[in-house]
Amino acid sequence: MIPVEEARAQLFDLVAPLPAETVPLIEASGRVLARDLRANRAQPPFDASAMDGYAIRAEEAVRGAMFKVIGESAAGHGFSGPLGAGQAVRIFTGAPLPAGAGFVVIQEDTQQNGDVMTITADPGTSHNIRPAGSDFAAGATVSAPRRLTPADIALLASMNIADVPVTRRPRVAVLSTGDELVMPGEDPGPDQIIASNSFGLHAMLRELGAEPRLLPIARDTLQSLREAFETAEGADLVVTIGGASVGDHDLVGEAAARFGLERAFYKVAMRPGKPLMAGRMGAAAMVGLPGNPVSAMVCGHVFLAPMIRILLGLDRHVPDLRQAFLAEALSANGPREHYMRAVVRNGEVRAFDRQDSALLTVLSQANALLVRPPHDPPRRAGESIGYLPISRAEGD
Amino acid sequence: MIPVEEARAQLFDLVAPLPAETVPLIEASGRVLARDLRANRAQPPFDASAMDGYAIRAEEAVRGAMFKVIGESAAGHGFSGPLGAGQAVRIFTGAPLPAGAGFVVIQEDTQQNGDVMTITADPGTSHNIRPAGSDFAAGATVSAPRRLTPADIALLASMNIADVPVTRRPRVAVLSTGDELVMPGEDPGPDQIIASNSFGLHAMLRELGAEPRLLPIARDTLQSLREAFETAEGADLVVTIGGASVGDHDLVGEAAARFGLERAFYKVAMRPGKPLMAGRMGAAAMVGLPGNPVSAMVCGHVFLAPMIRILLGLDRHVPDLRQAFLAEALSANGPREHYMRAVVRNGEVRAFDRQDSALLTVLSQANALLVRPPHDPPRRAGESIGYLPISRAEGD
Lengths: 396, 396
What we know:
By secondary structure, the first copy, chain A, is of the alpha/beta class.
């Protein structure tokens, strides 16, 4: 058995960043920026008013001063002339400051009668001007790689960037194997169950930014598996579920080997999820996950998620564990790293009593995997312990 | 000015859960379950082996015992006959237990010679059987409303649910207004800037589960605004950006009123984001956000996100603030609730020095809004303070 860290390092070596493609800005959120971008202009592009009020010369901003209002500067329609002593220009938030102006008196501190404006209150020391380039200068950089957030999209828009180079989405073929499986909506025989891991992994992969594709269920024959691998053509990553164990009925390894897999087989010192098959199969990376419902999903979080990050051009990154306080004591852990389904709430983490790897109901109720290192000693309630968040849901 | 809580309550009254639609299971992740679902079958549907090994009668599980191997039970292919005393059936993980069996001896504790199997080690007390229905019984419920996670999708699959009733995605029309705006990729005039908020909000709304649609930029004329409102037809929510302030150039309120808006106008005691317009406009809710880049995005997090939750059928839910320790002291807050762009890392929160609401660069670097209640006293470094997470990115 090899430690989780070692298995992860070997899996990481199977994948490399994918090439870039260009998408319109409106489709770029959540995608990973593939190369540095530079602002096509400064923001603001001119000295701009931060408030509604009157633009005047800086030295004239004193209570009681009176001005002749000579024009108006609105957003999109600046005042073209210069501004002299004793003159004011009515100005609105975001509008260009007239040449010569150095102060914006806010509306609330003024009174206008006809074309005469009087400062009626102490205008204070803030000039209420956003200098040109105070948000960013022309040429300012947004650095890759970076998963673009909604705020980034707004920033790129304001830099006048309409098309964005992003890493292509990883194409992941997901293959369930086993004579016992039927698809949801089908009528299972008495010895059959419904394929569920492939659907869960499909959803997880899509959330990670990949482009997953479910292949038809492969039967437990070399012929059926061979056909399945053929339909995986074009994938960057092939994920099989089931048949990665050592039982007599595990044909996936054999079929993959015949299909060109340079195979590595790991018994990983982890619970759930011990058996793992991996290698390169032509242009694709291949990972064989255990068929156990929860094992497959846990391996998805622990192994597939960081592999997708690498394919997306993000760094080789082992997800940092977060810390929470144990709600209940835990007995000593055995020799395998244990990923316990748990709920984190208000900084406290509580592992479920039932940790059998067949229980999807328990996984569905969990929002975290509490991580016990190998041979972790007994832990008391209130101790701090590491966990991996597995659900975005907050109060959903 | 009204407090943020009051503004939020009034906005919440403008929206109600949308009707349900049915989507295939493979498209259901991230959607909100619209009504309770019941399992079409139990899982496992039969007593199943939890290990690879041999099924025997429960009372015969003792070291040294010998058995005649009479057949095999594999996943998908059970052993049809009953199992008598002194008999064993080779069995694999997930396979149905033969009638009469009450124990699975794991492979590692056995030896087989021809058709004779001997238990070579203490088989222990765990019977290695997953009883029928131990994950869930037929008829077990998944309760609505619930935003479906990948684990939920796996669970629904195993319940043999192929089609899922989910709340329809809220259709949100996003309208930027102002003569100063051009679209990204266009060539701005000297007094113009690039529309950015609409792009940022579009990305945010999509992440929240809505179906946003960008309308063409409306110019500062009643005619242009009227045309824009016409193209918003069919939206559940119309979000305008800009023109919600009190300046002379704010025509949006007037145009919306002519278009049937039962208008409410709030000056909300918050920073950034003070002016807010809202009401019902025909079948749609309408919210007018301030045009300031950061104000619009902050209002998106504070107001639009929970409104989308309600439209999706989730509860009226004010996002719980999380707590972190202040990295640096903060001076007393004024009369308005202050949402400060900040970075949370390792349980510590640090507000940016520059909080001007025009700075998108600062928003893009933030992963949280540190929340200062009105009149919050000065805070010392190390004190615990509330924040709203605004980015899913973890180490991205």
